[in-house]
Amino acid sequence: MDRGGRRVFAGLTFSVSAGTALIVTGPNGVGKSSLLRTLAGLVAPAEGDLNLEGASQPDMAVHEHAHYFGHQDALKPALTALENLTFWQSFSAPAPSPGFKSAVMKPVQALEFLGIGHTARLPAAYLSAGQRRRLSLARLLITPRPLWLMDEPTSALDTASEARLLDLMNNHLSGGGIIIAATHSPLNLSTIVRLHLETAPEPMAPLSQERDA
Ligand SMILES: Nc1ncnc2c1ncn2[C@@H]1O[C@H](COP(=O)(O)OP(=O)(O)OP(=O)(O)O)[C@@H](O)[C@H]1O
Fold first, then answer.
1. What topology does CATH give the domain 2-8+19-46+65-202?
2. What is the complex's ipTM, to 2 decimals?
3. Would you say the CB of residue 5 lies under 6 angstroms from ligand 1?
4. How far is the CA of 35 from the centre of ligand 1 (A)?
5. pLDDT digits over 35-56, tens only?
């Protein structure tokens, strides 16, 4: 994986099973966000392959089976909260997978579920940071996709919203979904494997993967 012409990491191999969250940790700048952005199809890998085994539509790229919940909220500020979600619903095609079950919500339901139903008619620009974060999160609930790529998913959320997010993440796992999350904070999820990226002298970073009991 290269950023700005520099090799950030190399030789990275990992796999994640259905119903499992891969928690990516490591110091600032080691490449956690870059890894997620690569999986999300936003950055091309310098070399290597990404595969999603068992997908019902294997011709679709990994990122087409994924939702990316990154640092930026991916909202159009002039559109209302509801218009943003309606846009995302038409923009992101469902990616059904055998063994993956997801309770899909309508945009209004997703807003209500995340406690921001009252913002439906407000331009996204008027929402607070935490409300925007929840609106961005609502995108994951309106289109079923088995892979959730989440970069510091709890940032800007209050305690209640964080608890709801963890419930959502655990529901996604129990429905056979997969989560790959970069975080500096512990996440109370049901089934976790860990990938720790370590800073190393140029040109590459070593890595380790271990499973929680
Ligand atoms: N668009 C870019 N152009 C050039 N270099 C970049 C770009 N994006 C990231 N980098 C570099 O890639 C490296 C990895 O950055 P990345 O954001 O993936 O790290 P991180 O592990 O997520 O860090 P943090 O914990 O601070 O969020 C850093 O050295 C960063 O400066």
1. Rossmann fold (3.40.50)
2. 0.92
3. no
4. 10
5. 999 999 999 888 888 888 877 6
